[in-house]
Design goal:
single chain; alpha/beta; Rossmann fold; 2 domains; 10-stranded mixed β-sheet; elongated; UspA; Universal stress protein; Universal_stress_UspA
């Protein structure tokens, strides 16, 4: 990874995400850029009736100073992090646009926000960021603490895009000396599809022969609940998913809003890739 982008609304709930972003950037030797998006007329809670030539300049200075103080208070003096305040009326569009502009390899946000901004880094906004960002989005719960990465769980569906995700994930896991557990939650109807499972396993071994990846399968008609139990049983430090567009009425129930559900579950950091970035 070359650049990690972190977006904050200054809330305490977004502080753990900053610490995660910083620790990951240190291990991966990546550049860390922290941003805050503001809309200065809204922040000042006033209607501009006459031109104020320094209004925008002063707003940028104020937010740059506040962002710098926020990073210092949660990372300490001397932490290597770049900062930038952005003015935009749409927080989500500004963040996704900045990720594209900077060629970010990862976007880190908090799962819940606490400010009065129109758009908070939570719920539907995070979901839309996953859809629009040109890179994976790492959502960090507000009560999380970084204790390293030992176990990374990837929810797989035996598809080629899953191999592409694991190709990007493997170097991150290697840097942390973490093991990836690729797990597929199958219904009874899917369980008989041995040929597809065997193809995936062989393709994975051929593509990533040195990666520490184990492949497992669970059988359940309630995929989401089964995955949550699996994460707890294996003390997962990070869960990774691939967000797919709906493929019609034949799409397995496991795909339906699963990233949104996991984001709202809010106990384990979630890294979400989107299939559009592999097309």
């Amino acid at each position: 990874m070359k650049t990690i982008l972190y977006a904050t609304d200054y809330s305490e709930n977004s502080a753990p995400a900053l610490q995660f972003a910083y620790r990951i950037s240190k291990v991966l030797n990546a550049r860390l850029l922290a941003i805050h998006v503001f809309d200065y007329p809204t922040i000042l809670q006033t209607e501009v009736q006459e031109p104020f030539p320094h209004l925008e300049e002063d707003a940028f200075k104020a937010h740059t100073r506040r962002l710098k103080d926020f990073c210092r208070s949660h990372l300490g003096e001397g932490a290597k992090v770049e900062i930038e305040a952005l003015e935009h009326k749409n927080v989500r569009e500004a963040i996704a646009g900045k990720a594209l502009e900077e060629g970010a390899s990862l976007l880190v946000v908090g799962m819940k926000g606490g400010s009065a901004l129109r758009e908070l880094l939570m719920g539907n906004t995070t979901k839309k960021l996953i859809e629009e960002a040109p890179c994976p989005v790492l959502s960090i719960p507000g009560d999380a603490s970084f204790n390293g990465l030992e176990t990374i769980v990837y929810a797989t569906d035996f598809e080629e895009e899953d191999i592409a995700v694991l190709r990007e994930l493997a170097p991150v896991a290697a840097a942390f000396q973490a093991r990836i557990r690729a797990v597929h939650i199958a219904s009874d109807k899917e369980y008989a599809n041995l040929q597809r499972r065997e193809w995936f396993q062989e393709a994975l071994k051929k593509e990533l022969p040195e990666a520490k990846i184990t492949f497992e399968q669970e059988v359940s008609e309630h995929a989401f609940e089964a995955l949550r139990v699996y994460l707890g049983d294996h003390n997962a430090d990070l869960v990774v998913m691939l967000e797919r567009k709906r493929k019609g009425f034949l799409e397995p129930i496991f795909h339906r809003d699963r990233v949104k559900k996991m984001e709202s579950y809010g106990r384990i950091p979630l890294m979400a890739f989107h299939e559009k970035n592999f097309q």
